[in-house]
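Hey, resending since the last one bounced:
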Amino acid sequence: MVFILWIIAVILVVSGIVSLFRGQVMWGAALIIIGLLVGPGGVSIFT
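The structure tokens again:
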């Protein structure tokens, strides 16, 4: 389960960074924050 959360978090953060470079600042910041919350190192919403 931890590995799956880590993969989801990485995908969200990378998508957020790509969105930031495309000029979608709010959407990119939201994806990065959600990725950090979901990740096993952050405040996981599943625990």
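The chain has two helices and no strands.

Sorry for the duplicate.
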